[in-house]
Amino acid sequence: MQTEEKIVEKKKGTRLFQEVLLWTLIPLLFTTMVLLIIAYVADVNVFDKAKEWTESLPFGEKKQDEEIGDDTIIAERVVDLQAEIQEKEAQVFKLQEDLAKSEDEKQALLDEQTSLLAQIEALKMEKDDYKRDMKEIISTFEKMSAKSAAPVITNMSDAEAIQILASLKPEVLASILEKMSPEDAAKYTSLMTK
Question: CA Rg, the chain, in Å?
Fold first, then answer.
């Protein structure tokens, strides 16, 4: 009976090994095979990737040549970055100069605008003064006799005379034109109609 028990135990041990193999190792192999097929279809070289990954591990050994090559690459990269920094600093300096120049131009334009606004204000005041003066002159001509006003108007420039005559009341204008010579009256009448 002991031999039978040993045989049964041996079968149980073999059966246990078969179950472990069946439930873990075979699915693991199948999964690995499927992943390799997917990697092949995706055009990924799994072996190169594994090599890169193991080299990046801290305990992965690098050759002395690779370290020298890496140092050279790093040094070249540093030089490139320093050149890029200098170029960017030059660009920043130029932009600062442009900004200062544009601020100066802006200030000059603001000063010019202030000056022009002051000139406009002065011109408005002059225009108001001129209008007030013209009203006083017109009022004076309306109060004058036509006999006195006619020679004064004929001695003025045509522009001033027309401006005064055009602003007078029609009855005052008529009486002044009556006291002028026919040539002057015709001249001013024709200038007023233009």
Answer: 55
8 A C-beta contact, residue 134 and residue 163: yes
Q: How many CB atoms lie within 10 A of CB 145?
A: 10
Residue entry with tokens 């001129």: 130
Spatial separation of the C-alpha atoms in residues 36 and 44, rounded to whole Å: 9
Q: For residue range 70-118, what is the model confidence (pLDDT) as tens digits?
A: 778 888 999 999 999 999 999 999 999 999 999 999 999 999 999 999 9
Other C-beta atoms lying within 10 Å of the C-beta of residue 137: 14
Nearest to 191 by CA among 145, 137, 154: 154
Task: Indicate the average pLDDT of the chain.
Answer: 84
Q: What is the pLDDT of residue 2?
A: 59
